[in-house]
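Morning. Coffee machine broken again, so started the prediction first thing and wrote up yesterday's gels while waiting. Chain of 407 residues, entered below exactly as on the submission form.
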Amino acid sequence: MQLRYAFRLYPTRGQQAALGRAFGCARVVYNDAVRARREADAQDLPCPKLGLLSRLLITEAKRRPERAWLGEVSAVVLQQALRDCERAYTSFFASLKGERMGARVGEPRMKSRKDARQSIRFTANARWSITACGKLNLPKIGAVKVKWSRALPAVPSSVTVIKDAAGRYFTSFVIDTDPAVDATRMTDTDQTVGIDLGLTHFAVLSDGTKIDSSRFLRRAEKKLKKAQRELARKQKGSKNRAKARLKVARAHAKVADARRDFHHQLSTKLISENQGIAVEDLAVKGLARTKPAKSVHDAGWAQFLSMLEYKAQRYGRTLVKIGRFEPTSQTCSTCGAVDGPKPLNVRDWTCTACGTVHDRDHNAAINVKTAAGLAVSACGAPVRPGAIPAQREETGSHGLPTGNRTA
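Came back before lunch.
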């Protein structure tokens, strides 16, 4: 499988100016391609092919005085900008036809120099290289200092240079990993675990382990409010406002980085210790429109589940997602009786059928593991609760997934 390895870049002032020119040229070529597409569509003409756009917007454009500065950057950067535009329209048309999974994709828009994220991509034929002293040598930019946090497991097929909203530079390498080598990195284990995600605790495991929620955004709210207040008081278009905007972006980036690091460490720990992992398929978008929306975004469940998916696929683990309508918080994990829905303030409850006292989250984690078919009895047979009658407020039938969703 293909993975991205990202590292921090520290370009000099001259290299920052060169990267700025590359970002600008790639943006102009991309916008010219979008404009050409729209003009062809307005005149009911067929969409121009990639080869024609390359000749008109790059080769011939360099010969004109108003576009002569396109020759100051690598031609590969401009070609990749055209490919990005082509890919954006392909996704847009596939979304219109219903051939693309996920949320509906809108029509590609023009890029702006004020966009929060800017990037350029170099492929292998761009002749970029890593020098003997560990710097990244990019065509028409120079050897840029890289902060290597780990070694690359293979030769990259492409490299992307990114500038984020906080003014930081990163490089991202695309690596083709070796499944045989990845399999040796994780020791064999027969343990399985069910995970119940929440807000009081970020995760409660079926073995009773409770992982506290760090609440990165909540802890940084005071500092963020102060920075945002200072930004609002600055005059629009002034240099002080640009500095204040950068301060706000850096504060948000710090929160996002801390959350991402927490998710990486926890997901790697769970993958390394368990052969099978069961989670609930949460409706994060729906929960993000409810009263605790800020806390839902702060938890970052979608990012965490995405990390679990690709790491399980990479290291040969099993990840099972159960249906979001499974009544894990209403079912007794001991006898399988359904005790009905309960308000969120009820954290402990007693089963009316068998009298077992349950911790709400721990009981739900056990039910998640059982519903996924990962719980086994002493004789090794899978344990599942009996047939659970549907509640009145639940309409339709919601079956369990028949296979692993590790893609």
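The first strand starts at residue 2 and ends at 10. Going to sketch it on the whiteboard this afternoon.
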